[in-house]
Amino acid sequence: MAEPTDDRDLNRVRQDIDAIDARIQELIAERARCAQRVAAIKLEEVQQARARGESDREVVYYRPEREAQVLRRIMERDQGPLEGPTVAHVFREIMSACLALEKPLQVAYLGPEGTFTQAAALKHFGHAAVCVPQVTIDQVFGEVESGNCNYGIVPVENSTEGMVSHTLDSFMDSPLKIAGEVEMRISHHLLVAPGTKAEQITRICAHQQALAQCRNWLHTHWPHVEKQAVSSNGEAARLAAADSGTAAIAGDMAAEVYGLETLADHIEDAADNTTRFLIIGRSEVPPSGADKTSIIVSSRNKPGALFTLLDPFRRNDVSLTRIDTRPSRTEKWAYVFFIEFEGHLQDPAVARIMTELEEQSILLKPLGSYPRAVL
Q: Does the domain at residues 20-53+62-103 carry the CATH identifier 1.10.418.70?
């Protein structure tokens, strides 16, 4: 039989917690004041540059490489009992709120509200960022290119369904650079309007990627119900909220935003279903110490062309993390390669590879170097 709790000990621990909370609050306020001083220094530097005639200088408030370095250090020095990623998520929100004191970030994402892309944006930028929904991936690129948004976020690959071709194609003509990446564990649920019975459902809506990721489950449990691909899982959730005959495949955020009930949860075919998203911006990102680089390259159509493109990576001991192909828009039966690898464009080994590829290819377009996903 457990001994009764000593109220005096419990009250003492609670007093300790209250005192610690007060100290934490004081330190957060001190950190926020430091962030304000950083903003003032940056603004003064830009004003001085403009006075010298450097009219193209802008205030850069968000530094992806700096944020990645801070979060890595937080995880490295963590000693428990909370896990490193949990503590890093807390600091992400503190950093997001402090950055908003300087200037809230405008982030375009594939909408509407409730999509996994919005969830990825909040995971990367924190809840102080202003998320701006867009109807298509092209519009996400357009909002960032025009300067209406500081950054955008787009899906690029899924662990079971492969690359998102529309995202790769958008990079072909865009001047934007990749500024970061986010990995999200994806859990799909079958969502319906409150009070909807299973026998009422006549169609199931979702983004085509979500339908593919749940293909086997749908075939087993709903083989005779219409499956309709829509622009996003958020749109599917909106349709389900408006029509009791429609069910949506979407996640927890969509269920909350549109007030839906879960008819079945975790319906994805692969237990480790993960989607990777890319952060896109207008500026190149300096090295963070643990980076990746993405490029688009096309070679002349001749025997051994792919080997010729890849051999410089082997000789310079640089590891590839992804390679994919897309049809060329300029020549029939010709292809471009989307290649990702470890390292930064400023690294000497990577610079040597770029020089070789430029000599051997008919197209070489660096898409940017960026910090590897931290959380």
A: no
